[in-house]
Structure formats: structure tokens, C-alpha cells
Amino acid sequence: MAVQNGTQSNGCVGPENWDEPLYDPALLLGLDWASMKCMKGGVSSDSPGLGFRVRPLQRGDYSRGFLELLSHLTKVGDISKENFVARFDAMRACKGHYYVTVVEDLNEGKIIASATLAVELKFIRECAKRGRLEDVVVSEEYRGKQLGKLIVSTITLLAKKVGCYKIGLDCTDVMKTFYTSFGYAGEKGNDNTMIIRF
Asked: What is the rounded distance in angstroms from the CA atom of residue 101 to the CA atom of residue 115?
């Protein structure tokens, strides 16, 4: 079976592609951390703490516990490696829309925190972009190490860097104080979320 650019001719992903990022990791460099007052001790995406790394989701994160981490947040279901790779590739093909960002424990080789910036293209505001902070989760055994603040701050700063005119999120009442510490606030007369689940 021939291999071209790390992909076998039958379309299967070769092992050299498992570290391919969902988006360009250079976007995480040079974020304006001076505006994030909630972080202590100089923690940032460039300096997340000893043994930690902040980076885009990679194909290989299927084997690094990414889906298990998401199960701490909500129902994930039974997702095969093939289905994971297909969804990863579909998201990667939508350049500029999906920024799933993770914190990896380099010593353990596992994903310990994650959040997603989903970018919506608009016609309003001269064809602006709007960001959504989604799927924020930190592994229970790593809580208390500022990783929640780190991943939320990273996504917030990334939204600004990629040109979003605003970023929003949905959260439970219990989490409002946490998100307020980053500058998130309800808009007067528009502080409701309404959904239909299918």
C-alpha cells in the first residue's frame, strides 16, 4: 500500500500524522496575558507550569484520554478511533472555526484539561466573527492548579486574536462567579439561554 504525505492510499491515517494539530499552534504564541488579572504566578499558555503543555487538540489525543476527560463534563458515548479521526478531520477542514485546546500532562502523557472556541461567521457588524466558549473541563485529580483559569483565559485571548468581536458562553448559576472573574457578564435585557434538546 503506497504512502503519500503520511496517508496510506486507502485513506487511513499513518502514524506520523497522530501529532497533527487541529489548528496552527502558532496562534497560541504571543497572547496578551497582561489583560488576564485572574492568573497567579505568571501562569500562561506559554508557561502553564512544570510538566504541562497547552496546545491544539491532536489526532493522537484519542489515545491520551481526551474523550474520557470530556465524560467528566457530559455524556460522550462510545466513539471508535475511526469516528474520532473522521470528526477531527471534518473539524480541521473547517479552517478558522474550531479551536479545541488542551492541557497535556507531559509526564503522564494524558490530556487533563480542555476547552473549545467555536467561531461563527456573521453578516452583522460588517461580516464579523463571534466566538463561543464550549466544553470547558478539567480532570478532577488536577483541580486546584489554576488549569480551569488557564484554559478559559487561553480561549478568551485566542478569540480576540482570531478577530472575534465578542465571545459568549452558557453556564450553570453555580459557575457564574468563576466566569465573571475573567470579565464575562450577562447583558442587560439579554441574560437568558433557551434551548431545545433533540
From this structure: 6
